[in-house]
Amino acid sequence: MNEVVTEDGHPARRIAAEWEQHLQFSLRRSLHSVRAYMATAHRFIGFLGSHRGERIDRDALHKVDIAEIRAFLADRRQSGLANSSVAREISGMRAFLRFAGVDPVPTIKGARVKKSVPRPLSPQDAVALAREVSEEASEDWIEARDLSLLLLLYGSGLRISEALSLTAEILPLQPTLRVMGKRSKIRIVPLLEKVKKAMEEYVRLCPFPFSDKSLFFRGAKGGALSPDVIRRTVRKARYHLGLDNKATPHALRHSFASHLLGRGVDLRSLQELLGHASLSSTQIYTAVDAAHLLDVYRAAHPRAENK
Predict the structure, then answer these.
(1) Would residue 254 show up in a list of annotated catalytic residues for this protein?
(2) Structure confidence by residue, pLDDT tens digits, 125-147
(3) pLDDT (mean) for 267-273
(4) Which of 95, 123, 139, 178 qualifies as a FRET site for 88, CA 20 to 30 Å off?
(5) Does the active-site annotation cover 182?
(6) 257-260, long-range: CB < 8 A, 24+ apart
(7) How far apart are CA 224 and CA 221, in angstroms?
(8) Given 29, 276, 301, 303, which residue is catalytic?
(9) Which domains are present in the chain?
(10) Cβ neighbours, 10 Å, residue 47
């Protein structure tokens, strides 16, 4: 099959353009996400062309090895890319290679950022983790399930056990969610509009019927979704992204709490949102840096922009 050669001589630019259409119209990624992915893809193509001194086409992409990926990341760091942004660059590069049919995609770990105290995931790393997990899914509905589940953990501060115990009684989704926590204690948590849309997309694609008593998040065969399945996929994704081994599903809940505290939410309100029995459990979040959860949803989360 002949590939279209673009102005700079790299047929791979055409593959990137096809990927852009796929991201925007098939996967319905936000414009922000599409722009970020495309920037990474074109940087990678341009680097390979200069590095090899040849045109980059589909065959050339299939020959990419771990040494070239390391060289690309080293070049990006020399251009001023911070270690905290490496995960996003790796995620975008790997997603592009997967779209081009590279299998398996070479795996590389990004540089870890040393921290003196435990910290929540940064907004960028939380987003990269959600994307990486969902894009590894074997089916579209599982991709939508994993994405909506991780965004729910981050956006509403749920424990994974709480999210997986939700039933279809939550449908149709409302701006708040009624959650049963530890000791059968009921609490009301916010359901941000972008998380709600991701969950609705999962409902639309899920091949299994939803009755009032059926579990909301379903396993591959329609039964209960095991938390171990999610933990394994998160473990694999954090390895690919070079994230710390503390980047777990529970870390997303931790990030929710830390970011809200940084926005000025008082400890008593945060205690209610998290379902903590005592205020002392909530006070651990006063030791972490402030962040801006609402800004994250406007600027960084998948599908964060209106269609």
Answers:
(1) no
(2) 887 888 888 887 889 999 999 99
(3) 59
(4) 139
(5) yes
(6) 257/120, 257/157, 257/282, 257/285, 258/119, 258/120, 258/285, 258/288, 258/289, 258/290, 258/291, 259/120, 259/123, 259/290, 259/291, 259/292, 259/293, 259/296, 260/157, 260/293
(7) 9
(8) 276
(9) 12-99 (no CATH), 123-299 (1.10.443.10)
(10) 19
Of the residues 13, 253, 254, 301, which is catalytic?
253
The partner residues of 190 in beta bridges, in order of sequence, read 176
Which residues does 11 contact at the CB level (< 8 Å), separation at least 6? 3, 4, 5, 55, 56, 57, 58
User: Is 285 considered catalytic here?
Assistant: yes
- Any catalytic annotation for residue 159? yes
Q: Evaluate if pTM is beyond 0.90.
A: no
Residues forming a β-bridge with 176? 190
pLDDT at 223 over 80: yes
Catalytic residue among 37, 154, 202, 285: 285
Tell me whether the omega of the peptide bond preceding residue 104 falls within 30 degrees of 0, making it cis.
Answer: yes
Catalytic residue among 14, 55, 246, 250: 250
Mean pLDDT of all residues in the chain?
A: 79
φ and ψ at residue 71, rounded to 5 degrees? -65, -40
pLDDT tens digit sequence for 63-100: 999 999 999 998 888 887 776 678 788 888 999 999 99
Residue type, 233: T
Annotated active-site residue 253? The verdict is yes
Q: Which one is catalytic: 52, 182, 185, 268? A: 182
Has 250 been annotated as catalytic?
Answer: yes
Tell me the C-alpha distance between 90 and 215, whole Å.
34
Task: State both tokens at 47.
Answer: 């680097």
| CB-based contact 171:163 (threshold 8 Å) | no
Contact 121, 142 (CB under 8 A): no
- Highest mean pLDDT range out of 52-61, 280-289, 290-299? 52-61
Q: Residue 278: its pLDDT value, please?
A: 52
Say how far apart CA 192 and CA 39 lie, in whole Å: 28
